[in-house]
């Protein structure tokens, strides 16, 4: 594909929101087709997926009460069991099926497997949008290490590693981690050329109710200003903050892009800001 040849041998990391997994044909025809095109151009690809909507649905079915703080899930023991069932089970299988439909050789697992992603419990922290007091998110982890050698070996074997955003430590503890956080850390460690955060949202919007107000590109300073002004709010804040924190750690560009139209991800890969919002270190 035109424009992708320049990235031959480099890594692209693609994060897909759990809400996209239910419609397998749509996921296959959009993200799956783009990943297939990346592979055909010689680009190495890793995929991270979330499962928030599925976890919330199962939590409600089990009579539990989901607790969210500024777009982040509080994870107690019961919630962790739910997240394991959805991320490593339902969503993982749905993504695997969609990628197989697209001809993508996906190996779907979680960051716990073979120590692909190590983590430790996140200490209480002040969270943007949640007031001045530190918040304890429970069994939520911070990434401490990424087994880049294993990612490389999987790629060399012709496979695309597809990970649900669970991680663990050497003592056997499992942690839930925001999928955007995992994706940014993996992309940084792999020194990815591009990180794509794919969801139903077509990018950062000046008016969240009007897709035509999509902002094509943002520098870190411009993005911080949008957060301060309330243009970027809710669940988009942690997504943007994770993106900004990783720009200086080796990722060349981070793109927030929607799943529609079907060629949005591929088009954004070929031209920053064409279909989403691209975060660039410099203009």
Automatic annotation (TrEMBL):
GO biological process terms held by the UniProt record: L-arginine biosynthetic process via ornithine
Reactions this protein catalyses: N-acetyl-L-glutamate + ATP = N-acetyl-L-glutamyl 5-phosphate + ADP
Alphabetically ordered keywords of this record: Amino-acid biosynthesis, Arginine biosynthesis, ATP-binding, Cytoplasm, Kinase, Nucleotide-binding, Transferase
Keyword Hydrolase: no
Subcellular location: Cytoplasm
Residues noted as binding substrate in the record, renumbered to the chain: 51-52, 73, 176
Keyword Ribonucleoprotein: no
A molecular function GO annotation: ATP binding
Site (Transition state stabilizer): 15, 239
InterPro entries: AceGlu_kinase-like_sf (IPR036393), AcgluKinase_fam (IPR004662), ArgB (IPR037528), Asp/Glu/Uridylate_kinase (IPR001048), Glu/AcGlu_kinase (IPR001057)
Record-linked Gene3D superfamilies: Acetylglutamate kinase-like (3.40.1160.10)
GO cellular component: cytoplasm
Domain of life: Bacteria
Pathway: Amino-acid biosynthesis; L-arginine biosynthesis; N(2)-acetyl-L-ornithine from L-glutamate: step 2/4
Start and end residues of each Aspartate/glutamate/uridylate kinase domain: 11-257
Function of the molecule: Catalyzes the ATP-dependent phosphorylation of N-acetyl-L-glutamate.
PANTHER family membership: N-ACETYLGLUTAMATE SYNTHASE (PTHR23342), N-ACETYLGLUTAMATE SYNTHASE, MITOCHONDRIAL (PTHR23342:SF0)
Family: Belongs to the acetylglutamate kinase family. ArgB subfamily.
Protein name in the entry: Acetylglutamate kinase
Gene assigned in the entry: argB
């Amino acid at each position: 594909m035109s424009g992708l040849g320049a990235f031959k041998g480099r890594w692209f990391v693609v994060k897909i929101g759990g809400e996209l997994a239910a419609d397998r044909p749509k996921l296959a025809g959009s993200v799956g087709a783009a990943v297939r095109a990346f592979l055909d151009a010689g680009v190495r690809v890793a995929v991270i997926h979330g499962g928030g909507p599925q976890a919330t649905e199962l939590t409600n079915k089990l009579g539990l009460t989901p607790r969210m703080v500024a777009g982040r899930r509080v994870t107690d023991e019961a919630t962790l069991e739910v997240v394991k069932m959805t991320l490593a089970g339902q969503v993982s299988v749905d993504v695997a099926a969609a990628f197989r439909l697209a001809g993508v050789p996906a190996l779907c697992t979680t960051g716990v497997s073979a120590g692909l992603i190590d983590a430790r419990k996140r200490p209480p922290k002040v969270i943007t949008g949640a007031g001045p007091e530190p918040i304890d998110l429970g069994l939520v982890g911070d990434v401490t290490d990424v087994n880049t050698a294993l990612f490389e070996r999987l790629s060399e074997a012709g496979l695309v590693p597809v990970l649900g955003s669970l991680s663990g430590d050497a003592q056997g503890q499992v942690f839930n981690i925001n999928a955007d956080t995992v994706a940014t850390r993996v992309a940084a460690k792999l020194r990815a050329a591009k990180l794509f955060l794919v969801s139903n949202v077509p990018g950062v919007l000046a008016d969240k109710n009007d897709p035509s107000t999509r902002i094509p590109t943002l520098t870190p300073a411009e993005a911080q200003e949008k957060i301060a002004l309330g243009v970027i709010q809710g669940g988009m804040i942690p997504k943007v903050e994770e993106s900004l924190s990783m720009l200086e750690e080796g990722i060349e560009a981070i793109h927030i892009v929607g799943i529609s139209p079907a060629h949005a991800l591929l088009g954004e890969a070929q031209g920053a800001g064409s279909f989403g919002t691209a975060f660039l270190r410099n203009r």
